[in-house]
Amino acid sequence: MLEIKDLYAGIEGNEILKGISLSVNKGEIHAVMGPNGSGKSTLSNVLAGHPSYTVNKGTVVFEGDDLLALPPEERALKGLFLAYQYPVEIPGVGNAEFMRMAYNVKAKKEGREELDPLDFDELLSDKMEILGMDAKYKERAVNEGFSGGEKKKNEILQMALLEPKLTILDEIDSGLDIDALRIVAESIQKLGSDKNALIIITHFPRILKYIKPHYVHVISSGRIIKSGGIDLAMELESRGYDIIKEKN
Amino acid sequence: MQTTNITKGSQAHLERIKERFDGFMKSGANPAFREINELASGLIKTAGYPHRTHEMFTFVNTADPSLTFFDIAEQPISLDDDTARSLVYRGCENSVLFFINGSLDRRLSSFYSKDGKISISPVEQNQAAKREILERTKSEKDIFALLNAAFMKEAFLLDVNDGVSTEGFIQLIFAASGSGESPALSTPHILIRIGEGADIGIIVRFISLDERAFSIPALSISAGEGSKIKYICVHEGCEDSRHLIKTFVSLSKDAHFTCITASNGSALVRHNYEIHLHGEGAETDFNAVSILKEKEQAHNYVRLHHEAMGCISRLRFRNILKDKARASVDSTVVVHPGAKLSDSNQIMKSLMLSPDAKADSKPNLMIYADDVKCTHGSAVGQIDPEQLFYLKTRCFSQDMAQRILTTSFADEIIGKIPFAPARDGVRKMLLGKLER
Ligand SMILES: Nc1ncnc2c1ncn2[C@@H]1O[C@H](COP(=O)(O)OP(=O)(O)OP(=O)(O)O)[C@@H](O)[C@H]1O
Ligand SMILES: [Mg+2]
Predict the structure, then answer these.
(1) Total domain count, chain B
(2) Which of A73, A84, A90 lies at the smallest CB-CB distance from B392?
(3) What's the domain range around B178?
(4) Which ligand approaches the C-alpha of residue A85 most closely?
(5) Structural domain contains residue B40
(6) Domains of chain A listed by start with CATH number
(7) Burial (CB count within 10 angstroms: exposed 0-12, middle 13-18, buried 19+), residue B128
(8) B210 and B317 inside one domain
(9) pTM of the model
(10) ipTM of predicted assembly, 2 dp
(11) What CA–CA distance (Å, rounded) separates B213 from B267?
């Protein structure tokens, strides 16, 4: 589904990613861990197509297409979804209306039926209930004044509506309280199938107890320096990133 | 060198005004307003024609020859029924007044007021109303408001009795025409008197029927104690028309004035709002929005005076500019001595969609009283690239994402219009300009 080969990318002349290679297949869950500033969000931004980043070398193939050649909206329409580490506030744009428009753009592209506000509201209400989100977040402006945890839930709500093939969750677990973490993790898990895939960027193995990754990768200074199974995450938790340094 | 040129230019403007005025006094003037006409003409002469650096016209090109090379608009002209009907907002069919080039068109107007508690009448024989205009003219500083008084030949009084409360809105339509060689000057003049405790909605719609329309309307609203006014002002110019509007508002104790003013821009639109909160506890919630393209201009000039204790004012301005458009907001809140516990906030925001567009904002505060809470802020910026990217990662194309962000920016003001047909009308008029 996703094939990243020897990716070098940076921002404002600083090279941050220095040769990332990663292959993700349908049905797989990958966890990416690594110290602050190691390039995890850079990787997600580059994959999503943020215009501030430049790719200096390497290729990314997504569902058979050269991902890097596509504008961000086409990446999204092809089924790539980034749940932001810091979701952006959009004052003046109603949350429900925003999600309905996004839903309809994708539905139209896929030849599915577009939904009017009433039908969409039904769909939205169901998803919000699962996430334990109050109905008042429909009328509020997108992410405006949302707490950290509410913003994260709102990202998962969009994921649930857009049903992406590949989702990158950039620290979805930061800012969530214990109950919210469980609810969010369960929702993510329900959305998983053998047809889609997940990349979970996290600092904490706790979320990995709910969503069991098939692979865990450790990224440091813009490179994947170690890959393994869930045990690697546990090891990191007990011993910290020192284990990597030792081996380097 | 430059100075002499400016002086010469101003002098030429003054001379042209004088020439037009002399012609007007010989034929066309209404003897009932002669005293006001002459007073205003004299004041224009003393004050001089404002040059570019005049503090009231910092952002407006007063040297524009069209502003003084005018003829007096012919009246009455006729407006066909279909056009007229299309200008009336749904729900206002029985409460609409048409002023064509300043004259009340009784055939097009339709005004039924239960028990005559709301009335419209000419000011000609109303000595008290005429005195009011005369007194206001004496302290008028705006050259175009003075021009209105100098060339005024009709004026009307809209009188709303004490305690009158209406659900619907009264719509005043000011249509200006002008198809000759020179810009055609029209000088509508309306006094609106709102009785104590009245609760009323008024929509004022300024329309240019032709490219050469040059209208300088003057409105004055006096609001009685405890009255509530919802005021919507919509300006729809056409490309080469010019509108310089003066709106004077005076609020008694506990009167509330909620105003949303929307402008479509044209060769020149300038709106001067002079608002006096002169009774204790008076409140103003003022909102202005415009979306401009090509070479359109819209300028708001606001002077709001806190003159009594415990008054509240909120002023919000939003402009979106494309192409080579120009907008300015020049707004000053003055807290007069004794106006303790004044609470005022001004926010100006402009969204620039083109590097060739120009927005100026000048928020200002003058405080001469203690114990007040006054703030102001202004921001001129582009579309936020992070918001744009966020929307794109949610499947929206560049165009759609940009439209969502610009529309919502303007709609934070338009959405406040408390009358659905007018709100929809303004959305249609302004938001359509954001399409490519
Ligand atoms: N505009 C920029 N100019 C220069 N350096 C930048 C810029 N933006 C980000 N960086 C740097 O890139 C590096 C990688 O940042 P990134 O956000 O990808 O880290 P991260 O792994 O997601 O960290 P965290 O765990 O804290 O979220 C950091 O050192 C950061 O300071
Ligand atoms: Mg990060």
Answers:
(1) 2
(2) A73
(3) 75-384
(4) 2
(5) no
(6) 2-89+150-247 (3.40.50.300)
(7) exposed
(8) yes
(9) 0.89
(10) 0.96
(11) 11
